[in-house]
Amino acid sequence: MSTAAPPIDPNRPSPARVYDAFLGGTHNFAVDRAIATRTSELLPETALLARANRAFLGRAVRYAAGRGITQFLDLGSGIPTEGNVHEVARAEVPDATVVYVDVDPTAVLYARHLLGDDPLTAVVHSDLREPATVLGDARVRELIDFSRPVAVMMVAVLHFVPDGPALDAAVRAYRDAVVPGSVLAFSHTTFAGDTAVLERITHLYTRTGGPLVPRDAERMARFLDGWRLVEPGLVAAPLWRPDPADEPITGEARNLMLACVAER
Ligand SMILES: C[S@@+](CC[C@H](N)C(=O)[O-])C[C@H]1O[C@@H](n2cnc3c(N)ncnc32)[C@H](O)[C@@H]1O
To answer: InterPro entries under this entry (predicted)?
Structure first.
């Protein structure tokens, strides 16, 4: 994929734009809002869960920065909104470098627009299943020194990647690319609550380019392959080191997204 702004198809919903709609963003079309509305009818807590996921992202970035990490590779970074990785990281580490990677043209376009000519950030239009392309990208090599620890973020993205060797090989490639002291953070949709509701939501997402693939904790643990889980482990996203300022989320919906940070 090139550095040119890729084309956007307003007639086909995308997971990035549906998520933007849940977060109250404006970079989405009627087709995206239709999916967000229908999902919310099925599961009224979805928007709250999206915000809880976003809050986890912020806490994970702060954790990494607190460990002295200054370099972030944000895979499946999404359409920029409040609390983007570079903003959260820079509140802790002013010279943090961040590379955003997303397969969605809308996410790439708006991230590039937001970041302008910021020399410490870059946006790469790529599929995370192509780690050689991502890790070999000139902007990644320029901003991330792989001889020093890196925070690899895969927040609310792996559940858009179907099972298969490409998925596990890609996650392994990112793990293998980084040195001890690095962290890997992810959140991921799981099975909880009414399975019929989850099935209907996953069916809805087949209309987007990215099918939604919930996985159980055991399957997710394979993404870590022996990396040490930071306390409290792989838990419901809102329960990973919650901040008193976070919006409360209770009930079964809270358990639909698991999250963790692991260290090498
Ligand atoms: C729900 S959003 C999450 C955004 C952000 N990480 C967050 O948690 O707030 C998921 C993002 O992953 C992107 N995505 C899905 N599959 C991808 C892939 N194979 N490679 C790169 N990005 C992908 C989507 O385009 C979307 O922007």
So the answer is: SAM-dependent_MTases_sf, SAM_dep_MeTrfase_SAV2177_type
Domain count, the chain: 1
Strand ranges (DSSP E) for 21-176? Answer: 71-75, 97-102, 121-125, 151-155
CA of 104 to the centre of ligand 1 (A): 8
Tell me what percent of the residues of the chain surpass a pLDDT of 90: 90
- Which of 87, 156, 99, 164 is closest to 126 using CA atoms? 99
Tell me whether the omega of the peptide bond preceding residue 232 falls within 30 degrees of 0, making it cis.
Answer: yes
* Residue 217: inside a domain: yes
Cα of 138 from ligand 1 centre, angstroms: 21
| Residue 1 falls inside a structural domain | no
Q: Is residue 232 part of a domain?
A: yes
CATH at 206: 3.40.50.150
In this structure, are residues 128 and 134 in contact, taking their beta carbons and an 8 Å threshold?
A: yes
User: What is the span of the domain harbouring residue 175?
Assistant: 15-263
Mean pLDDT of 105-125: 95
Answer yes or no: is pLDDT of 69 > 90: yes
CA 107 to centroid of ligand 1, rounded, Å: 9
The predicted-structure confidence for 15-67, as pLDDT tens digits, reads as follows 999 999 999 999 999 999 999 999 999 999 999 999 999 999 999 999 999 99
Helices (H), 23-70: 30-42, 46-66
Nearest CA to ligand 1 atom 12: 76
- What totals of helices (H) and strands (E) does the chain contain, helices first? 10, 8
